[in-house]
From TrEMBL:
GO terms for molecular function: NADH dehydrogenase (quinone) (non-electrogenic) activity. Residues 436-451 have a biased composition (Basic and acidic residues). Residues 5-329 form the FAD/NAD(P)-binding domain. It comes from Knoellia sinensis KCTC 19936. The keyword tRNA processing does not apply. One of its GO terms (cellular component) is plasma membrane. Signal peptide: none annotated. Keywords: Cell inner membrane, Cell membrane, FAD, Flavoprotein, Membrane, NAD, Oxidoreductase, Transmembrane, Transmembrane helix. Residues 452-462 have a biased composition (Acidic residues). This is NADH:ubiquinone reductase (non-electrogenic). It is found in: Cell inner membrane. Residues 436-468 are annotated as: Disordered.
Length: 468
């Protein structure tokens, strides 16, 4: 009997844990398709951007993680098409197209940054959803201090020493806190023409509170800590313009002003993967305002019981876009599929167990919301430290992360301060290239030889049938 073919899209928490949940099934073949070769521990991306961790420390190779899972195969490629009727997924990498058939599809492609209809802001205010984003931001942040050292006019120097972070959720708070620590602690002895402690860090959000999902008490604690660190917190303020030299903001009363800043970080809002629209077009599913797919209580696509959607792509019961939702959803989808393959009744509808939320503000200071527990300060920071070590995948990653944290938190150094012009410029240059100029895998005539030979080989089974 042929194995049941499962195709998983995405190597994030949903895709990886969904694949691993099927590892003991000899009757299942899993093909994981991802546009990167690594699994990304996204909650620590801001530490890559601010020089605490290396990109390898939070992004182990997907193939290495799954090397012991005999029923799993990994394919590199960006998914460009899904045909639910033909049951195929088409992916592309540097012009090479691959079509993969499936019996069951698990879509865990995650979400991208949302600029709320102002996608042109992205050129000057990168988001933080990938290793490329983090490395670009590292180049921009550390580069700003270098350029300030070279500035001859006070206004130019001040512009380079001003950093604006948009979004007061966990990512924005963590990023603002780390830039403040960089300027006030790590770099304070490294320059001669500038005093990095004069850097201005501004945190902007249209919401009336910092960390709104954490509640008033923890939100106020985070705001107070940021303020003590020298971060200016601008709440009830929306961004109405972004360019290369600054950002335009508007208060709730309609008054507008401008902040001159060379470095802008966008940490506000998420947008579901564009694959959501492809799935909705071929099913009874609808999309919410963020482009997420409205799924059934069992995480299947309406009208398509052979398709599961999990993680940041799925819209169900207003669940948050956090790693635990993706992990639990992927494991549930695997459990649901296994019950179906075994001819057993479907399990109860998916129910999310909230294990809590945490955000670090600075070294030795964090906020944590776990059940009815609400704590801030050093104890919350210890909780944050332990939880993130537990969920990092791979022994090497845990050890190297601990060593980097010791350097950064006990000392004042940053182990990963290497930046290049390519990090800063590559994304925008590639985005502006016409499709015909984008790089493609080289092809030579001999590459087609094997395919041509197989096409010319006689059909042995057919010949045997005719002979009989």
């Amino acid at each position: 009997m042929a194995a049941h073919r499962v195709v998983v899209i995405g190597s994030g928490f949903g895709g990886l844990f969904g694949t691993q949940a099927l590892k003991r099934r000899d009757d299942v073949e899993v093909t994981l398709i991802a546009k990167t070769t690594h699994h990304l521990f996204q909650p620590l991306l801001y530490q890559v951007a601010t020089g605490i961790l290396s990109e390898g420390g939070i992004s182990p190779a997907t193939r290495e993680i799954l090397s012991g899972q005999k029923n799993a195969r990994v394919i590199l490629g960006t998914v460009t098409a899904i045909d639910l009727d033909a049951k195929t997924v088409t992916s592309d990498v540097l012009g090479r197209e691959t079509v993969t058939p499936f019996d069951t599809l698990l879509v865990a492609a995650g979400a991208g940054q949302s600029y709320f209809g102002n996608d042109h802001f992205a050129e000057y205010a990168p988001g933080m959803k990938s290793i490329d984003d983090a490395l670009e931001l590292r180049g921009r942040i550390f580069g700003a201090f270098e350029w300030a050292e070279l500035a001859t006019a006070p206004a130019e120097r001040d512009r380079y020493l001003t950093f604006v972070v948009v979004g007061a959720g966990p990512t924005g708070v963590e990023m603002a806190g780390q830039i403040a620590e960089l300027a006030h602690r790590t770099l304070k002895r490294d320059f001669r023409a500038i005093d990095t402690r004069e850097a201005r860090i501004v945190l902007v959000d249209a919401a009336p509170q910092v960390l709104p999902s954490f509640g008033d008490r923890l939100g106020d604690a985070a705001k107070n800590r940021l303020t003590k660190m020298g971060v200016e917190v601008e709440l009830g303020t929306k961004v109405v313009g972004v360019d290369s030299t600054g950002i335009n903001i508007e208060k709730a009363d309609g008054t507008q002003s401008r902040i001159e800043a060379a470095t802008k970080v966008w940490a506000a809002g998420v947008q579901g993967s564009e694959l959501g629209a492809i799935l909705a077009e071929q099913s009874d599913a609808e999309l919410d305002r963020a482009g997420r797919v409205k799924v059934n209580p069992d995480l299947t696509l309406p009208g398509r019981p052979d398709v599961y959607v999990v993680g940041d792509m799925a819209a169900l019961d207003n669940l948050p876009g956090v790693a635990q939702v993706a992990i639990q959803g992927a494991r549930y989808a695997a459990k649901h599929l296994k019950a179906r393959l075994d001819g057993k009744p479907d399990p109860e509808p998916f129910s999310y167990f909230d294990k809590g939320s945490m955000a670090t503000i600075s070294r030795f200071s964090a906020v944590a919301s776990v059940g009815k527990l609400r704590v801030s300060g050093f104890f919350a920071w210890l909780l944050w430290l332990a939880i993130h070590i537990v969920y990092l995948i791979g022994f090497k990653q845990r050890i190297t992360t601990l060593l980097h944290w010791m350097v950064s938190f006990i000392g004042r150094g940053r182990s990963e301060r290497t930046v290049t012009a390519q990090q800063i410029l590559a994304r925008n240059i590639i985005a502006k290239m016409p499709p015909e100029d984008l790089p493609k895998l080289p092809v030579v005539d001999s590459d087609h030889a094997a395919a041509d030979e197989s096409e010319n080989e006689p059909d042995v089974e057919a010949e045997a049938g005719r002979a009989s």
